């Protein structure tokens, strides 16, 4: 089936892109890894750029709906931020390569991928409503008067950066991979405490 073949190609491409980087990856290597011929690879993905975008879109389709679902839950801003921390750290632990692909795409300024993520979130106005909820809770004295955009930037940075910098931290701090994953799960509570002390009165 086409979907099975595409999935096989995407999984193979992930491995090669991680090993070689975007510039160093070759379509023939990806075809070999997927155990198909190069002609079939080009049938599904016309170029290396399209193949990389396919991986990014698959990651966006995992991440963006999770953000929207969290923001639609009932509760305070702090409750939602805590749920966001749990959801995203658990998701990235299960998909450890995700931040690298998304970071590369954002750094390249690929407007198509960015717009796809934005559309999923904007369609139901969940992020806009969440920022408005932050402003309301600030007016009520529940949250400290920090610009809502900074609250989101800080929260997402606390979640994502340790995964992006994982190879550096594992080597410099001499942390085995399995212990690093355990640390990320333990980190959820630490991040929640940082958010509370930084933004909640």
Describe how the helices and strands are arranged:
Elements: H1 2-24, H2 27-34, H3 38-44, H4 48-71, H5 77-94, H6 98-108, H7 111-122, H8 126-139, H9 148-164, H10 166-172, H11 177-199
Helix pairs in contact: 1-2, 1-4, 4-5, 4-6, 4-7, 5-9, 5-11, 9-11
DNA-binding region: 26-45
Domain HTH tetR-type: 3-63
GO molecular function: DNA binding
Defining key terms:
single chain; 201 residues; mainly alpha; Arc Repressor Mutant, subunit A; Tetracycline Repressor, domain 2; 2 domains
Structural class: mainly alpha
Q: CATH topology of the largest domain, what is it called?
A: Tetracycline Repressor, domain 2
- Which H/E pattern describes the elements? HHHHHHHHHHH
- Basic shape: globular
CATH superfamily of the largest domain: Tetracycline Repressor, domain 2
The CA-CA distance between the termini, in Å, is 55 Å
Number of domains: 2
- Give average pLDDT, whole number: 86
Sequence stretches where pLDDT stays below 50 over 5 or more residues: none
Tell me the total number of β-strands. Answer: 0
Can you summarize the main beta sheet? none
Multimeric state? single chain
User: How helical, in percent, are the residues?
Assistant: over 70%
């Amino acid at each position: 089936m086409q979907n099975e073949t595409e999935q096989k190609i995407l999984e193979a491409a992930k491995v090669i892109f991680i090993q070689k980087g975007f510039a160093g990856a070759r379509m023939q290597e990806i075809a070999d890894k997927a155990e198909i011929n190069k002609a079939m690879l080009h049938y599904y993905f016309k170029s290396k750029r399209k193949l990389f975008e396919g991986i990014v879109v698959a990651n966006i389709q995992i991440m963006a709906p999770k953000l929207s679902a969290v923001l639609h839950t009932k509760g305070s801003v702090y409750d939602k931020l805590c749920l966001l921390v749990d959801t995203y750290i658990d998701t990235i632990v299960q998909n450890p390569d995700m931040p690298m692909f998304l970071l590369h795409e954002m750094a390249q300024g690929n407007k198509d991928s960015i717009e796809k993520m934005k559309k999923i979130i904007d369609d139901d106005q969940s992020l806009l409503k969440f920022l408005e909820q932050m402003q309301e809770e600030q007016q009520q004295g529940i949250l400290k008067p920090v610009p809502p955009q900074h609250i989101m930037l800080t929260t997402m940075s606390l979640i994502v950066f340790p995964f992006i910098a994982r190879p550096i931290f594992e080597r410099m701090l001499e942390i085995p991979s399995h212990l690093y994953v355990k640390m990320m799960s333990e980190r959820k509570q630490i991040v929640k405490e940082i958010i509370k002390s930084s933004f909640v009165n």
